[in-house]
Design goal:
Layout (H helix, E strand, L loop, with lengths): L12 H19 L6 H32 L2 E2 L5 E2 L1 H7 L3 H5 L4 H11 L12 H15 L6 H4 L3 H9 L16 H5 L3 H22 L6 H4 L3 H4 L13 H7 L5
Antiparallel strand pairs: 1-2
Length: 248
């Protein structure tokens, strides 16, 4: 007698975004402490950095999912475009050679003959800054304040006007704007919202519902962890079919 085997696979995209939200909430809770301990301050910085890292990782994770399996997800769009995955397969090396994750998304959309995510406006601007912040943290080199002021990244972060963590979270004396005034709960929350907004916009360009939508309609305790950043207008069945058609 033959036994049926059920195979499953797990995507980290929504987990990374939910994880970023969890860490942003944790950072906000610690910031409300009246007299944080040294352990609290260490956990606070760790939570903010973890939020930035996981939010940025969601952009990479979803890109890999689309290249490997095609746009969509059973929980989000209700279907997976396997034809798109087959079409993209020969271009994997070309896609991976692109210098950054946003550039890889642009090329992927171009290959599928879909419009790119518009540059110079949101959510592309914040997504670019999020990736830059992740890279700075990953390859961080301590610098004197005069040197950090000359970095474009710091100027962009300053322009976002994130609410800084309270003074107990700064070391005594004069401190650099980055990282001390940047890495707070407000930055962690922004990172989570930015990643969700960019993924939503990619799926808007693809012409199908966001891969995150299924998680937004799930259990109440999980719904609150996936920001409702962007919403595409519902597509008719005919429009959705033509939008996902593979280039001939």
């Amino acid at each position: 007698m033959m036994k049926a085997t059920l195979q499953t696979r797990y995507s980290f995209t929504a987990q990374f975004i939910a994880g970023a939200k969890v860490f942003s909430i944790k950072a906000a809770e610690i910031e409300r402490l009246s007299a944080p301990s040294s352990r609290d301050i260490t956990e606070h910085r760790a939570a903010v950095v973890a939020a930035v890292m996981q939010a940025s990782a969601s952009l990479e994770s979803e890109f890999s999912e689309v290249v490997e399996h095609g746009p969509g997800h059973q929980l989000g769009t209700g279907r997976i475009d396997t034809e798109a995955a087959a079409f993209l397969h020969p271009f994997r090396d070309l896609l991976e050679r692109q210098s950054g994750i946003l550039e890889r998304w642009d090329l992927l959309l171009q290959l599928l003959r879909r419009p790119p995510v518009p540059k110079g406006v949101q959510p592309h601007q914040d997504a670019s800054l999020l990736v830059g912040l992740r890279n700075e943290l990953t390859h961080y080199k301590s610098r004197w304040e005069g040197e950090t002021k000359r970095k474009n990244l710091v100027g962009e972060l300053r322009a976002r006007r994130f609410a800084p963590p309270p003074s107990p979270f700064f070391p005594p004396g004069q401190v650099n704007f980055f990282p001390h005034h940047v890495l707070g709960a407000a930055c962690a929350k922004w990172a989570c919202q930015t990643a969700a907004a960019y993924i939503d916009r990619v799926y808007m360009q693809l012409g199908i519902p966001s891969v995150l939508d299924g998680h937004r309609q799930g259990a109440a305790e999980l719904r609150s962890l996936i920001p409702r950043a962007l919403r595409a207008r519902p597509l008719s069945r005919r429009t959705r079919s033509s939008a996902s058609r593979i280039p001939g």
